[in-house]
Structure formats: C-alpha cells, structure tokens
Amino acid sequence: MSFSGRPLSVVRRSIGSRPTLAVRSVSRAVRLNSTATPRPPPPTVASTAFYALSLALFTGAGYLIGTYSSLPPPASLVESSTAIAHQKAHQPKYGSHSDYTSAISDLRTSWEAKGKGDKISTDDADLESHGISDWSYHDAKKPTVVVWVESTEEVQEVVRIAKKWKVPITPFSGGTSLEGHFSSPFGGISLDISAMDKILRISEADGDVTVQPGVKWEDLNAHLASKGVPLFFPLDPGPGATIGGMVGTGCSGTNAVRYGTAKAEWFLNLTVVLPSGEVIKTRSRARKSSAGWDATKLFIGAEGTLGIVTEATLRLAPLLPTKVAVVSFDGVEEAVRAATEVVNAGFPVQCVEYLDGRTMHAINQGGLAGRQYKPVDSLFFKFQGSDEAMTEVAKNVQKVIKKHGGKNFEFSKSDKEAQDLWQGRKAALWSVLGLRDGARVWTTDVCVPISKLPTLVRETTEDFEKRGITACHFGHVGDGNVHSLALFSNDEELAVVEHAVHDMVERAIRLEGTCTGEHGVGVGKIDYLPTELGEGTVNLMETVKRTLDPSNLMNPGKIYPHIKPQRQ
C-alpha cells in the first residue's frame, strides 16, 4: 500500500488542545460418553462457538446465525474476495442511543445495588482519560460510560448487559497503549480492569503464578522479590504495562533475545469471558499439553477482540545474576554484525539493545542516567550467569566486538556498576523527549529480519532527515525490533511525521518484516495487515472473529480491517 499522493485515511486531532507531557524521572488456560446414548446436555455457547469455528477452519461449511442482519457474512471460511464482499454489504450494527442509555441504566442500577455507585462514571474527565492517550496521535474517541470491575463475575455481568443492548465494550487497564487500543470509536462501555490487581497464587515449586489482569509486571516481580522467591516474570515491555495489556498486544521487551515474547510459553492458561458472557479457562496449569490446539494463544495478541481476560497463569524464570556491557561503534552495520555474532555464538545473552548516536547524545544531555556515554551508535548487553562464567564471557564477547570495530568496551564488575551502566538504556525515552523544549513525540515500532536491520535504520534515518524531522532510533537489535521516536511541535510537523512513519512501516514490510514488533495493531496499524499478512490470512482472522463475536461487541475498530460496524 502507498500513502503517497493521497490524504491519509485517519484524521488526527489537533495537538493544540493537548497538554504537554512533562519529562519525568526514571524510576518505573468431553469427557467421552459411554457406548450408551443418553440425551446429551444442551450445548454451551462456548462449545457451539468452537464447533462453528472448527467447521469454519477445517471443513469450510456451516453458517453461524449472527446478529449482523438477516443475511450475515459467512462464519465459515470462504474465499477471501467473497467474504470481503459479504462483510462490506452486511456490517454489524450497534444499538440506538436509547439502547446505550438503557445499558448505562442497567449498569448503574446493578453497581449501586452492590454499593459501588462510584465505580461507574459518565463524567467527561473519566471518559477522556479512558479513550484518549497522551502517547497516541491516532484518531481517538471517548467511551459513553466507564465501569470499574473487580472480578470475573462483574466482567461477565457487564458483557451480558452489553450483549442485551448491543453496546460495544473496550477493555482498559494500564492506559499505556501507543496504537489507540483503548479508543472507543463507537462509544459504548470502557471496561476498566485496573482494580483487578490481585496476585492470586504463587507456586515456587512449579515456577508459576496466577494473577488478575490489572497486575503490573513490575509490581509482580517486586512482590516475588519481597517474598524471597528466586523467580521472576521475564517479559518487560515498559513501565506501567499490565498483564492484561501484555496478553492483548502479544508484547515482549528488552529480554526477548533470551526469553522470547508473550507468544512463547509464558502464559500457561487464561480465564476469559467470551462475547457470549460465558467464562472459559483455556487449558490446565501443566507446563506442556498436546490436548488439542492451544486456545491460550488464540487470545494472545487479539487485543481484547475475542474476549476479556480476567485471570492469567504465568510461567516464571530463575532470577540469575546479571552483568552489563556497553560498547561503541562507527555505525549501525558494524553494531548489528557484532550483535548477531554474539547471539549466534551461544553466549548467555539476556538483552542486546541498539541505540543510535542521537539517542546517546540525548541521554547525555538529559542527565537522567547519572553518567556520560560516547555519543555514537552503541550496543547495551546484559548477560546472565555466575560471576566466574560471566567474566569469561566478557573476554570472549570483547574479542567479537573488536573484530567488528567496537570500541570503549565497558563491563560491569558489580551489581551497582551494572545498574549504573544500564541506566542509560532505561533513560532513553525520557531523554529523547528533552531534546526539544515543548515538543511531543510520535512513538512507533517495526521489526525486520536481523540482517535487514541496518538497511531499515539507515534508510529511515535518511528519510527523516530529508523531511527535517528530529528522530531517534533504538530497540532490541537481537530480534530486529526497532523503536523510532519522532519529535514535533505543531500540526504541520505532525503531518510530516505521520507520513514519514507510514513510509517507515511500508519499508519494514518490504524488507520482509512486520508493521509492529510488540506494540500491537490497535487503530494505528490496522490498514497494513492485508499488505503484510495477505487477504487470505486476514479473512481467516475475521472468520474467527465473526464466529466468536458475531455482534462485534469486543473492542471494535481494531485488527480486522474489513469489519466496520455502524451505530443506529
């Protein structure tokens, strides 16, 4: 797809009415019947939905009777062009203004009966904070009502009321989304799960923990440490991220080189409220299972469009000593070659982070790291293991680094030195914000095969500079994931940045990469999916969506480019 020569399809709000984000300090889951044939029990909604899904995916037959219209788009898997044509002709319709009002009335009556009248709000400030983000410049819309929930049962009740009145639901947890995940393009209910923040169970022997979705990964690891549990949850997307949002976006973080992403085996099972209102658990707590396909992964990366996660059982990893190294390079090509050889050599690498020269300059200028670095392209390493093993590793890594022109190799000798060296990586985002007084930042990410990373960074840097954009590039070089932060101060600069970001995403896809490495699709990158995945794959995803959520109530406007609901 190309955005050249035509207006962008998504209209942005003016930045003039938005507050300036202050720079803050860095701190932050049948039984078979016998041969007798008794009358079977009536099927549950979940079993009906998954039966329809099986037909859809494997036989191509059967139609789910939905609520789109008298002739809904097929819920069986048909050829993409046919499915798209049906979808365009029969888009889902939400309730009327009166239906929305009735839904709010039902919610208010129920919550007041629980003594929780203050946990439902239509105040504009609450609607604003639950629909519009200071971190996203995509088209953002407010919900009609915000409801705070504390249990699976309350989520189930909200879903049933929403289903009754055909009112959409948008989940909200940490509010840190960069791609407009909690925007409510059709109004409706913002389901705030931030109060579902309990750690329900810890099993050190089994190396797992069960939590509610509002738990923040940083708080979980701090709690484990306070209890003397020598384990941690290794996914580290960024400060403030919650388990629910991490499931929804299929996140990763700086530890991805060693521990992978949310789509690996870190989520053992999930408790999910389906669009029907039925509650399921995706699988058992066993470390592995070959009991059918993995329903857990169906919801990882689905961004709340297939159901609301209310509990998650997480796999934990051993908490090992770490050492940090920082090294300078003349350019991104040399840095990537060095990082690739270090990773492929099998050294115990936990993180490999690339920061370009401008980012390093920003870190020095901002002073948040408490030290100075060489203001050139750099790699930050974290290694894990015993002190003796890591000392030997440092010697071998340094040999590889020198072969690729690396200079100024610094290796921590103590825990404090490790923390001090790594502080630069932690300070990158806030430091970039300080490059221009009063500027705002557009943050995006893409991911490419590692060998294509130098081309991506070089071409993107050149393109941004030609457009007069001040931008920094850094990210997880060990898996080809780059974050770009582009600064702007007014609407004219915002338009230039927007076009440059679109070109960067197209460039990543052209290099056999993806429009998003870990931030998710949301409303910001939905239009790229047909180009990246192909219409057949998108059709498969939309067939699953129509099967589980025929009324399209769950987080509409995200992921599925051909499903465009309407309000009555």
Automatic annotation (TrEMBL):
Residues 138-319 form the FAD-binding PCMH-type domain. Its EC number is 1.1.2.4. Its main location: mitochondrion. PROSITE patterns: FAD_PCMH. It holds the Pfam family FAD_binding_4. GO terms for molecular function: D-lactate dehydrogenase (cytochrome) activity; D-lactate dehydrogenase (NAD+) activity; FAD binding. The keyword RNA-binding does not apply. Keywords: FAD, Flavoprotein, Mitochondrion, Oxidoreductase, Transit peptide. It is found in: Mitochondrion. It catalyses: (R)-lactate + 2 Fe(III)-[cytochrome c] = 2 Fe(II)-[cytochrome c] + pyruvate + 2 H(+). One of its GO terms (biological process) is lactate catabolic process. Its cofactor is FAD. GO terms for cellular component: mitochondrion. Belongs to the FAD-binding oxidoreductase/transferase type 4 family. This is D-lactate dehydrogenase (cytochrome). It comes from Kwoniella newhampshirensis.
